[in-house]
Amino acid sequence: MAIHLESRGPAETLASRTARQLSQLSLAAVPGTHLGAEDDLLARFGVSRPTLRQAAKLVERDRLISIRRGAQGGYYAERPDARDAIQSLARFLRMKGAHLGHVIQVTRPVSEEAAVAAARYRSAADVEALQAFAATIDARDTPRDLIAAEVEMARLISQMSGNPVVELILEIGYSFGLDEKGGDLYADPDRRRRTRDMQRSLCNAIIDGDPDIARLMMRRRSDQFDAWLHLGDAAKKDRQ
User: Fold this and answer.
1) Which of 99, 90, 81 is nearest to 226 (CA)?
2) How many other C-beta atoms lie within 10 A of the C-beta of residue 143?
3) Where do the structural domains in the chain lie, given as residue ranges?
4) Helices 124-134 and 143-161, interaxial angle, to 10°?
5) Average pLDDT per block of 10 residues along the chain, 240 residues long
């Protein structure tokens, strides 16, 4: 994701220079900070309203600001997250013909390390969040519910790992991969039951602070998904 921070030299336009200045202003502030109303920023940067708005579109696209209307309106500092980055990455993967099997191959070792780190470094707030998620597992009984639960759990665990690279890779895996084939993967009620059981076992291992069991549970999940994918691919070939 491009962030407009560096000058482009003599060819830099007034709008791109203003975007760079606005980006710097946002990065110097805590996310959520009010950077000023439009009139405040017009005076600060010494540009016209159309130029500021053109620059703001560039910075807003990079998720470094948000623009709010109304009594508390104005420009606010923001930060991009993994879900923002995933949109362009998912398009690239689809263009290259990637499928869920490719994703699992790459995310398998990363997900295991994420589970281990989550079990080792979880905080009291992390445990509370995972317990709240675990309490909803039995109610997730449709393919759509299971896809949402898998994504939610992956995000919780990746955040608990404390590694932003892990967070990005797992976001790719669950947001792209399951969206591509999740309906088929969870069509069978017995699979959904087994998925819920695996979710519960993994959550309990992390809550208990047992990294070895957390790794084992995550590995079993990957093995199970891989087996289901191979079965689905074999059945598709038989029908052809």
Assistant:
1) 99
2) 18
3) 9-77, 82-239
4) 170
5) 44 88 95 94 96 94 89 88 70 80 85 96 95 94 86 91 88 67 75 94 97 96 85 53
